[in-house]
Amino acid sequence: MIGLGLAALGRPEYLNIRLGTSIDKSEASYKENAFKVLDAAYSNGVRFFDTAPSYGKGEFFLKDWQATRSYADTVLSTKWGYTYVANWELGFSSAHEVKEHSLSKLIEQWDTSKILLPNLKVYQIHSATFESGVLENIEVLKKLSEIKAATGLKIGLTVSGKNQKEVIKAALEIKVNDLSLFDSFQVTYNVFEQDTADILKEVHVAGKFIIIKEGLANGRVFLPSTAQEILQQLASKYKVGIDAIALRFCIDSIPSTIVLSGASDSQQLEENLKALTFKLTEDEMKLLKSCKVDAATYWKERSDLSWN
To answer: Which of 99, 93, 246 shows the shortest CA–CA distance to 161?
Structure first.
């Protein structure tokens, strides 16, 4: 299944390989475009929508869209832990988002995010790491457990970096009041970054909810490489774009997974959704699995990408 992530829809600059464009980057224009993409997604069967406070106006665009459409069957997901600080300033010279996994930040962002209820179904720690200490912060874990008990939300986390699988493994062991806390895991997985393949199978067997992000590797699947040649051959065979092959690889890798499209316009979304029109063969999957790179190398390359 494909869901829609709002990272590229809620803020005027995004971490990827895109060159600068001359499109209207005003907030009003972005909101109009976000509504068009959300409408196109819904009309094409997409029901899962993922956002975060650090996605600029992503949460507010999603709230306003949901309020005006009043769909009963949408499943909304958001996060806490990063604050968007670029304030729509193009070419912002510092980091566009600041990470903070404190109890006060959780309370602050939850007070805003809960406006997405009752369609909000998944609430996640944004980029949980050992370094932030969030998995050992008893006050935060207890607060998340309280939110879960009061709302019925799936409590989850997103992971990034070369030790994704270690963070997932640690999170699976966390209990509050003798009950497993985390129900949902959002993981970076694509033809290059396959380091979590085995642990994700364990997560699936454990009955947890899995969300795949960055299926296009922030656009790097389009760069010249051996992988790109393989992707192009398969794209020609199935008469789709490289993006659809890359997303289909994620869908066929892990059962019962939501794979996020990060489309920034309706045309990109339409191309992404073509991933649902075919299924890769076992030999094709083996071929794409051969494209994996070392996790440390992948994340070093990702950290060198520019906001544009």
So the answer is: 99
